[in-house]
Structures are given as C-alpha cells and as structure tokens.
C-alpha cells in the first residue's frame, strides 16, 4: 500500500513519518513512536482509554487517522509530567486519592480531565461526571476519580496546566 508523509509534534518533539493512509493515530503513537501509555480498550470510540490531546483538545486517538493529525501538536500521558519527573497535578491527585486500580483507563482519564479543567478550572461534581462520561473505568466506581479531579482543580491544574513542584516521582 502506498504511504503518505506526515509531520507531527508529539510531546514537544517533531516527527516526520511515512504512514499508510489507514493508520490510526493511536497505532502511530504506540507502534511507531513507542508511546504505549496511550491504551486501546475498544477500538470503537467507546472507552476513552486512547484519549490524547490534538492541538490542545482531547480526542479519542482510535477515531483519528494519523494523516488527519498531519501538522498537529499532540500531547500524550508521557508528556504530562515535567522533564524532572515532577507529576502533573492530575497525576499527583490520582495517586493521592487512589483513583486507579488496574490503571488501564487512567491515561485517558487524565487526558480528558486535563482538557476539562482547561475549559472549566472549577467544575462541579456533575460537570466532572459529565465531562468524563466518554471515559469508562471498570474498576473504581468513579468516586475517587471525581475526587481526584476536584483536588487537581483546587491545586490549580486547569489554570496552570503544568506540573506541581512536590518532589513526587513519575
Ligand atoms: S480505544 Fe479508543 S475509545 Fe476505546
Ligand atoms: S482503574 Fe481499571 S479500568 Fe479504570
């Protein structure tokens, strides 16, 4: 099959890649760039495990062709912590509030929550639940996830959109 060249920036690093037109963004991230923190839970746009940011907005990367992301800026869960390993406030809050069990949904949850807090830095519980309804978790019952997003909001996650300086490791 013929290939198409795409140019994308992922977590601040530029990549020029030849891809098949049918290649999904999630497979480019995982299989070509080795960024396996972005998970595939369903491949049918239902679970949200594959959520990343494309040009600052959360997208389900199993619903985006790699060629559609040409010229775009992508952020994955690997790009959320600071270079020194300091966690993003959402990562810190998920850890502190025990907002994960198996962790499979967690990268997508955090990327969706980060998008939510950017648009709404002080969401109500209802707004958090509504904002994360595209992300499924089969373990936690969602309570601690909602609490973690509330705590990250209090820590200024949406306003700062940057890691806190707390000394925690990635
Ligand atoms: S793998 Fe993309 S929504 Fe489930
Ligand atoms: S922590 Fe297991 S699916 Fe959410």
Helix-strand blueprint:
Layout: E1 4-10, E2 13-19, H1 25-32, E3 51-54, E4 57-60, E5 73-75, H2 89-96, H3 106-119, H4 125-131, H5 143-154, H6 157-160
Parallel strand pairs: 1-5
Antiparallel strand pairs: 1-2, 3-4, 3-5
Helix pairs in contact: 2-5
The structure holds FE2/S2 (inorganic) cluster (2 copies).
One FE2/S2 (inorganic) cluster (FES) binds near residues 139 and 140.
Care to describe what's here?
With 170 residues, the chain is of the alpha+beta class. It contains six helices and five strands; from the N terminus they run E-E-H-E-E-E-H-H-H-H-H. The protein has a five-stranded mixed β-sheet with strand order 2-1-5-3-4, covered by helices on one side. Strand 3 (51-54) and strand 4 form a beta hairpin. Helix 2 crosses helix 5 (143-154). The protein is globular. The model is unreliable at 160-170 (pLDDT under 50). The site of one FE2/S2 (inorganic) cluster has 11 residues, from loops. Residues 40-43, 45-50, 60, 62 line the site of one FE2/S2 (inorganic) cluster.
Strand order of the largest sheet: 2-1-5-3-4
Mean model confidence by pLDDT: 93
Q: Please, how many helices?
A: 6
- Rg over CA atoms, rounded to whole Å, is 16 Å
Fraction of residues in helix: 25-40%
- Small molecules in complex: FE2/S2 (inorganic) cluster
Q: What is the element string, with H for helices and E for strands?
A: EEHEEEHHHHH
Q: Uncertain segments of ≥5 residues (pLDDT<50)? A: 160-170
Give the tally of β-strands: 5
Largest sheet: 5 strands, mixed
> What is the overall shape?
globular
Strand content: 5-15%
């Amino acid at each position: 099959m013929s290939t198409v060249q795409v140019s994308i920036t992922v977590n601040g690093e530029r990549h020029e890649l030849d891809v098949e037109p049918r290649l999904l963004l999630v497979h480019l991230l995982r299989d070509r760039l080795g960024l396996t923190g972005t998970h595939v839970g369903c491949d049918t746009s239902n679970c949200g495990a594959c959520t990343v940011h494309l040009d600052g907005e959360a997208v389900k990367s199993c619903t985006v062709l790699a060629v559609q992301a040409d010229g775009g800026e992508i952020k994955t869960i690997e790009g959320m912590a600071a270079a020194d390993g300091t966690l993003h406030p959402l990562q810190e809050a998920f850890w502190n509030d025990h907002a994960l069990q198996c962790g499979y949904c967690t990268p997508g949850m955090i990327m969706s929550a980060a998008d939510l807090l950017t648009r709404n830095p002080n969401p109500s519980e209802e707004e958090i639940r509504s904002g994360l309804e595209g992300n499924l978790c089969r373990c936690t019952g969602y309570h601690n996830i909602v609490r973690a997003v509330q705590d990250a909001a209090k820590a200024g996650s949406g306003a700062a959109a940057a890691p806190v300086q707390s000394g925690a490791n990635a």
